[in-house]
């Protein structure tokens, strides 16, 4: 992609403009940190374009904090008060549907995760958001809590102009195959290799 130019032009009958503005399915996977960071950077760009941003974090603990949450909630409030950027909704599994909201079996947690996915699927059908960030979403797929084929079908056939970015390790092959952009974060070097634990502003 020299100077942002595609290496090939497909014979798909689309104009350059139509092809450029096609909604994308993006997957950030791999063992190294940075998957969510990159997804939230993308969401920041989308907010600046006025997109409606929907973040859905599939994390085990409702107490788990990331710095981006406070920032994006503030951006949502800024949009409401001034009209700048776009609206933001941040849904952590723990606010409505969560396997951490109460004690339960793995079956209970799986059912809660599935309920979360079904809510996302309903929003996609209703074209609620311009960009969906499904953070750490590969894990309930890996554990078999949510059917991968169902997810792929919903995402591939989503209506309108809705971008979706999914983060997490071990992205299933069917999801990778369906995606338009896949990046794998691989480790070259990490402070933990030298015994240094995570720190504020870097890991959270």
From TrEMBL:
Protein's name in the database: Cob(I)yrinic acid a,c-diamide adenosyltransferase
Biased composition (Polar residues): 1-16
Highest classification ranks of the organism: Bacteria, Bacillati, Actinomycetota, Actinomycetes, Pseudonocardiales
Xref: NCBIfam families: cobA, PRK05986.1
InterPro entries linked to this entry: CblAdoTrfase_CobA, P-loop_NTPase
Superkingdom, natural source: Bacteria
SUPFAM superfamilies: P-loop containing nucleoside triphosphate hydrolases (SSF52540)
Region described as Disordered: 1-22
GO BP of this protein: cobalamin biosynthetic process
GO function terms (MF aspect): ATP binding; corrinoid adenosyltransferase activity
A Pfam short name: CobA_CobO_BtuR
């Amino acid at each position: 992609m020299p100077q942002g130019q595609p290496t090939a032009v497909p014979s798909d009958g689309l104009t350059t403009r139509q092809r450029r503005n096609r909604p994308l399915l993006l997957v950030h996977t791999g063992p190294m940190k940075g998957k969510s960071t990159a997804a939230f950077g993308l969401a920041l760009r989308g907010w600046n374009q006025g997109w409606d941003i929907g973040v859905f974090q599939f994390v085990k603990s409702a107490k788990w904090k990331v710095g981006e949450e406070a920032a994006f909630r503030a951006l949502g409030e800024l949009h409401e008060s001034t009209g700048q950027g776009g609206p933001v909704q941040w849904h952590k599994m723990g606010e409505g549907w969560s396997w951490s909201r109460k004690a339960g079996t793995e079956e209970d947690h799986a059912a809660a995760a599935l309920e979360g996915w079904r809510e996302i699927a309903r929003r996609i059908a209703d074209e609620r958001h311009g960009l969906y960030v499904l953070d750490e979403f590969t894990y309930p797929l890996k554990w078999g809590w949510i059917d991968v084929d169902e997810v792929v079908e919903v995402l591939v056939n989503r209506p309108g102009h809705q971008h979706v970015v999914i983060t997490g390790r071990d992205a299933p092959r069917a999801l990778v195959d369906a995606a338009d952009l896949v990046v794998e974060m691989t480790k070259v070097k990490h402070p933990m290799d030298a015994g240094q634990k995570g720190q504020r502003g870097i890991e959270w």
